[in-house]
């Protein structure tokens, strides 16, 4: 992995152009980006449902980590290789060579409805992208996935506290949780250099995208990155485990 972009598992930096507030695309995910996933379990509260006690909490038991594959936007002549992490804990996807169609590339603020979440995700991806050894193993990529989920489902920098997202207690998960917290705390001290967007499809897993900003840093908007004189560098982030299954508490 280089100190600038996460790219060890897929080769050279991917480039893309995007236009408009939403762009149709297909996604193909073929394998774990760092060799395997890591089993994790815990509980979360959906951000769309107000927390009203344990009856509103859902348990999860999944494989976490980075995935590799490609995505192809309408109008592009060739697919773009990428590494991706998941956004959701409620939805599924499966490995395969056949493209998953019907995705839309939407802006981060439009998707999350929270500037704070968009900023936290941008800082997290910036820290990982600028530190050469931060995420280049299955263990580290699983910790980054936990950090992403915590950002989506919670408001703090710990995967062990708060009312939104909590990793289960226990020795096997302790080191993983420690590293996820380390990533979240480190990210809080950097300035984001990425614009966040999401590959979204109703009824299936959504995938996080982070594209290098052009020019001075600016607040995230509802729009996906505008095309410029040169293609935008793409850092793709997003995926849950193969056959991820939702399990309510």
TrEMBL record:
Keyword Oxidoreductase in record: no
InterPro entries attached to this UniProt entry: Ice-binding_C
Domain Ice-binding protein C-terminal: 223-247
Keywords for this protein: Signal
Signal peptide range: 1-24
Signal found in the keyword field: yes
Domain of life the protein comes from: Bacteria
Pfam families, per the entry: PEP-CTERM
Name assigned to this protein: PEP-CTERM sorting domain-containing protein
Organism in which the protein naturally occurs: Rubrivivax benzoatilyticus
